[in-house]
Structures are given as C-alpha cells and as structure tokens.
Amino acid sequence: MEFCPNCGSMLMPEDGVIKCSCGFEKSLSDDDLEEQYKFEGEKNKDLEVIVTDNNNVALPTTRITCYKCGGTKGYWWTVQTRSADEAPTNFIRCAKCGNTWRSSN
Ligand SMILES: [Zn+2]
Ligand SMILES: [Zn+2]
C-alpha cells in the first residue's frame, strides 16, 4: 500500500502507474516490479554458479554417497546469495558422475 507524498491519500495502482487526485503520478516499474525481476535473477544466478564451478578443479573434496552412482568422493562449495538474510548454501558434486545437489546442512 502506498500513500501520496503530496496529500497523503491512499494510492491505487492502475496499469503500472500510481495516480492521485491531486495530480501526483508515480511509475511502478522502478521499485515494485524490479523486486520481482531480482527474485527471478537470483534463481538463475544459482544455476550459473553451478555451471561455472563445474570447471573449477581446485574445489575441496569430501566423503559423500551419491544417490545416482553410489560414488563416495565429491566436491563441495558454498554459494552466498545476495540476500544477507539467507544462510549460504552448500553444493556437492559427485566426482564420478558429476551429479550435483544442494547439501542439507
Ligand atoms: Zn495526492
Ligand atoms: Zn555420482
């Protein structure tokens, strides 16, 4: 909910634009819509990170049990999302078959 900075009236969005009876006008594309695009971009960014790190041979190794091939050696890395509220996510990749998944801890 938004209120007019000029007269304090409650503002109703219409066709992506907020209009007030006093003449105040504000486009919604700046803040509200950008938030949604950011969220989508965040997801895609995670996928990109996985692809990028697949080429990194210097990743630390750990003992795993791959649910696809049963391999016991895996690489792991951490991805910190841009949101400071979220804890970093650990990813694990099977060294044998390349299967990649998010670690539960
Ligand atoms: Zn107004
Ligand atoms: Zn595997």
Structure description:
This protein is of the alpha+beta class and 105 residues long. The protein has one helix and eight strands; from the N terminus they run ββββαββββ. A four-stranded antiparallel β-sheet has the order 1-2-3-4, with no helix packed on it. It is rod-shaped and about 70 Å long. The model is unreliable at 37-41 and 47-54 (pLDDT under 50). The structure holds zinc ion (2 copies). Residues 66, 68-69, 71, 94, 96-97, 99 line the site of one zinc ion.
Mean of residue pLDDT values: 77
β content, as a range? 25-35%
Q: How can the largest sheet be summarized?
A: 4 strands, antiparallel
Shape: rod-shaped
Unreliable residue stretches: 37-41, 47-54
Q: Spell out which ligands are present.
A: zinc ion
Strand order of the largest sheet: 1-2-3-4
Overall SS class: alpha+beta
Spatial gap, N to C terminus:
38 Å
Order of helices and strands: EEEEHEEEE
Number of strands: 8
* Helical proportion, percent range: 10-25%
Count helical runs.
1
Overall radius of gyration? 23 Å
